[in-house]
Amino acid sequence: MSLNPFPNALTGHVALITGGAGGIGSAISQTLAQAGAIVVITYNNDVVKANTLLETLPGEDHAVVQASVTDSVSLGRLADFIVERYGRLDILVNNAGITTPVPHDDLDALTDEWIDRIFQTNWRGPFAMIRACKTLLMADKGGLIINISSFAAQTGIGSNVAYCASKAAIDSLTRSLARALAPKVRVVSVAPGLVLGDYASRFDPAFIQGQTNATPMGRLGVPDDVAKTVLALATTLTFTTGSVIPVDGGRGVA
């Protein structure tokens, strides 16, 4: 993790990161905490992983909360927790997501069950999280929502057809809510390409090399690339809303 160029820029701010203990989520949590934010991390199943991350975050008063983005009741409880403990929410990062590898031409392998799971988690989940936190985010000077999308939304190239479509839907959600919640709340999509980490490690090395060769910047992204983009949106790109920010090394246009 590189040094944070804005070590105190978010002091006093509260940031909620769904799926905050994953590879990209961990980097975002660390980066925002380094900038002074109080970080609330949600997890679905792995409490040990979430608490391990919590112990490494700089600063004080961070929290870990179990909350599934597919359970609107638990998201309501999460919002209540934030109200009671902090009384504010400045940044929401919708990072939680799922997928499974299915060849795009194998229509039978992409089952109804997987399609429903992907859209429930990747689209309905962020919408439900925003709905639960809307009042908090619109209070005082307003807040920032960052939806973690994917270059798959634009290219149609990704782990499966439903995943690509779910991320395209997220970008549409970003545009709709940027208009609907303005001027109090900004809404932005951050769209990484393939990011090195646990998920990418499952692929054949030849595939990874092929993706690297196809990336104009000559390398694949790492979680820190995404985290720096989130930080920039929270600290310096403050006139940006309704946009999709690519973090793919040019892969989306190659």
Short note summarizing the structure:
The protein is 43% helix and 13% strand.
Q: How does this structure look, described?
A:
This protein has helices at residues 23-34, 47-56, 72-85, 112-138, 152-155, 161-180, 205-213, 223-235, and strands at residues 14-17, 38-43, 63-66, 91-94, 144-148, 186-192, 244-247. Helix 1 links the parallel strand 1 (14-17) and strand 2 (38-43). The radius of gyration is 17 Å and the shape is globular. With 254 residues, it is of the alpha/beta class. The two termini are 28 Å apart. The chain is 43% helix and 13% strand. The longest helix has 27 residues, at 112-138.
Quote the distance from N terminus to C terminus. 28 Å
| Rg (C-alpha, Å) | 17 Å
Residue windows where pLDDT falls under 50 for at least 5 positions? none
Helix content range: 40-55%
The beta-strand count equals 7
Strands of the largest sheet, in order across it?
3-2-1-4-5-6-7
- Please give the count of helices: 8
Q: How much β-strand is present in the residues?
A: 5-15%
Order of helices and strands: EHEHEHEHEHHEHHE
The oligomerization state is single chain
Mean pLDDT, as a whole number? Answer: 94
Give the overall shape. Answer: globular
Largest β-sheet summary: 7 strands, parallel
Sheet/helix structural class: alpha/beta
